[in-house]
Amino acid sequence: MEETIYFIVMIILSQLHVITGAGGRGAYTHMKYCESKLYNPRYQTCCDGVITVPGGWPCCKTEVYNSENAICCKDKIHYKKGASCCKDEAYNPEYETCCDEKIYPVRNGNCCGEKIYDPRTEKCCDGSINDKVESFYQCCSDKAYNPLHKTCCSGKLYSERDLECCGEKSYSPLHESCCSGNLYSQRGMKCCGHKIYNPLYESCCSGNLYSQRGLQCCGDTTYNPLNGTCCSGNLYPHGGLQCCGDSGYSPLHHTCCSGKLYLIGGLECNSCGGESYSPLYETCCSGKLYPHSGLQCCGDSGYSPLHQTCCSGKLYPIGGLECKSCGGESYSPLYETCCSGELYPHSGLQCCGDSGYSPLHQTCCSGKLYSERGLGCCGDRSYSPLHHTCCNGIVYEPSGLSCCGTQAYDSSTLSCCNGKITHSYSICSTDRRTIRDYREVLRRFSPLLIF
């Protein structure tokens, strides 16, 4: 037995990392206490003061379990995949229903206390199942009833319909009145706080009775609607006003649009994003309201044509610009460049095929872009005039040569005759030089000849 314990201890200690400090003293890392005992949470678990393996698993009293295929209910492990607890028992919600402490072999069942019921033919009222009911039945305490034939007041059923409740009692409004749970034999009476009154002769505001009839309430006070107007608790000493939010106004002098007052009467109110407004004072663009009149719309933005230009929903900060079309979209050449239907967000570019480019940084030859500036084009190729010569699409070295068709030559020693390179002293049959010119050529190359 002692050897077994020693072997287990050695296995656990072999999994620990030791950090050696000054003086040769060591400390086990990752260690924690399980009550008074040390354990390594990487490989062990502390459950209610008991160390067990493996590490990281949930505890069920003093044991661990794999939550993927087991569950702990009331300190007891149940090996049931996908289960839940029904008090101290495990059940599978996919196939069973738990009602309080009882398990039924029904999926998604309806519980009434600890019993299961069928809501199509039964109704649960205060933990009691009532059968032979219809879908419109209501509950009165623990009993189901038909509201078309009975009345329920404070859990008590009355056999008459169309009654109302007054505290725990039922009454007929056709013959009686109710105030603060008390019944009165007069009908048509109303409550003012805990007092009953006749609205034909009195008025009630905030629990206070007034002996004059026909008054109305405005906050905590009363007023005669012939002489005043109440708007959201604010009393105005003029009758016949209308309300705009909490303000009273005369339609002859003001216009109200969705709670906003305008200082001119009879204005038209338009709708903007569900909100009313007056076009005389505001501008609506795609549901957005701008507090200035006379603006124009650019998409959902309002703008002044004097200061901005709109091209296909895009605003430019200068007024009066010309809008051009690029691939069906408008643009301003002052701010953008269009190349074969493609827009580039820079002005002053040139086009190379459908690409925009700056000649200060690139060269375009036959629709192809080259990343160097200052180059020349030779056919569809680029070349440097400082180092090369281009003759009808063919590049030669060095620069400064002359062309004879597609060939380059040095004009100081050679000449071109009928598309062919010859020596400069040769006579070309189509040359129109005069006899004097030929003599000059011969004299230069044959100084011994005498003419």
Quick recap:
The protein is mostly beta strands.
Q: Give the helix proportion (percent range).
A: under 10%
Oligomer: single chain
Detail the poorly predicted runs: 1-27
Strand content: 35-45%
- Radius of gyration using CA atoms only: 51 Å
**Alpha-carbon distance between the two ends:** 139 Å
Instruction: Please report the number of helical segments.
Output: 2
Mean pLDDT over the full residue set: 81
In spatial order, strands of the major sheet run 1-2
- The number of distinct β-strands equals 62
For the report, how would you describe the main beta sheet? 2 strands, antiparallel
Helix vs. strand class: mainly beta
Shape: flat
